[in-house]
Amino acid sequence: MHFQDWLETPQGYYVLQWALHKHELLLADVFGFNAVQVGLPRYDFLRGNRMPFRFHCDESGLVDVRAVPGHLPFASQSVDLVVLPHVLEFADNPHHVLREVERVLVPEGQVVVTGFNPFSLWGVRRRLSRHPLADPPWDGRYISVPRLKDWFALLGFETRGGAFGRYAPPFRQEKWLNRSRFLEAAGDRWWPYGGAVYVLQAIKRQAGMRLVTPTWHDRKARAKAMVAVTQRNGQ
Description:
Elements: H1 3-6, H2 10-27, E1 34-38, E2 53-58, E3 65-66, E4 79-85, H3 94-104, E5 105-116, H4 121-128, H5 145-154, E6 157-165, H6 174-179, H7 182-190, E7 197-204, H8 216-234
Parallel strand pairs: 1-2, 1-4, 2-3, 4-5
Antiparallel strand pairs: 5-7, 6-7
């Protein structure tokens, strides 16, 4: 089973609903011209954002831009926002993926990462699994928030915000997940760092640099040029 197929199971949809809602809240006030979603092309994590040019990037042929996460076909400092929904934990070299994101982001550009929390009931389920590398989502290499923040700092990102969510045990049946809904409010209040998944938002900073923003018309022209390039690459 592919991870995207797992997201359509009751267990996966339970996680997906929360992540999509959090992206809508986080991205509503992120402005610019070019936004890129890497991975999970069936789901629109950019739907709450209002940038004029939004691209979906994946290895499949059913996207705007066909590419692997570690080699994004965008010019350096050409993208305002990159979202990585469950990309890093399934990447062979997650730190390289973040370096590539840092390359394509403009100064003050933003990245939003979604991942599974290893310090949760779901993380415990993965560690106790007899075959942890066999089926999604247990075949991923979960990255903790403190570790991800360290990676951000090394690449010159400043963590801006984020959230944990989904506190029910990893039940497979929808009825048990529904019966555990009361844990959401309790988890947010009493053990917020124990959520099954997290969303973390960071901004690309460049120390000692005075940011000179191009005029609106110049940036719009550059954004349109990138549209033409990515469309040719996606053919």
